[in-house]
Amino acid sequence: IIKAAADLITKDAPDYQYLAARLAVFHLRKKAYGHFDPPRLYDHVKKLVRMGKYDEALMTDYSREEWDEMDSFLDHWRDMNFSYAAVKQLEGKYLVQNRVTGEIYESAQFLYLLVAACLFSQYPQETRLDFVRRFYDATSTFKISLPTPIMSGVRTPTRQFSSCVLIECGDSLDSINATA
C-alpha cells in the first residue's frame, strides 16, 4: 500500500507524498516498536543502551527525572510532517538499525531528541534541558538541519561527530597524495 501511494506522486498530484510518508511512518513504527505508539523515552533509551545500540553515557549523563522531563518535550506527531522522500532517507541513512536484518530501533523524534541530549550532556545541569528542548524543537521542525555523521552516529557507541572537511593542497599529484 505504501508503494501504491508513492506511485501516485506526480507533479500534478504532489500531495500523495504525504499519504505515502504517513503510511511509511506507520510501517516504520511497527517495525521499531511492534505498534504505532512509541514507548516512553527512558524505557526506550535504557533498552537500546542494554542492546548496545545507544551509547551507555546516555544513562549516566542524565537522571531518570531528566529523562522524564525530556519525554515531555517529544512530539511524535511531528513525524507526520515528513515527505515520503524524507521518511525513506531517514530509514536508509539516519535511524539506528541493523543493516543486515533491516531491523529498525527508533523513529525520527527519538533521533532528534537524543542528538540534542548527547550534544548538551556536559552543559551545566541547571540549563542543559532548556538547550536540549530548544535544539530538539529546531531540528524536529526543520528550522535547522544537521550533517549526516551527527544524525546517524552521535547517540551510538561510535559517537561519530566528524563530517566533511576541506584540506588545502597544491596543484600537483604529490601535493594531492600528501593530503590523503
Give structural notes.
The chain has ten helices and no strands. With 180 residues, it is mainly α. α2 (16-33) packs parallel to α6, α5 runs parallel beside α8 (125-140) and α7 runs antiparallel to α8. The longest helix is centred in the first third of the chain and has 18 residues, at 16-33. It is globular.
Number of strands: 0
Order of helices and strands: HHHHHHHHHH
C-alpha Rg, in Å? Answer: 19 Å
Count of all domains: 1
**Main beta-sheet strand count, sense and barrel state:** none
State the helix count: 10
Mean pLDDT: 93
Helix content: 55-70%
Shape: globular
Strand content: under 5%
Uncertain runs with pLDDT below 50, 5 residues or more? none
Please identify the structural class as seen in this structure: mainly alpha
End-to-end gap: 47 Å
Note the topology.
Blueprint: H1 2-7, H2 16-33, H3 41-50, H4 57-61, H5 64-73, H6 84-94, H7 108-119, H8 125-140, H9 148-153, H10 173-179
What key phrases describe this protein's structure?
single chain, 180 residues, mainly alpha, 10 helices, 56% helix, globular
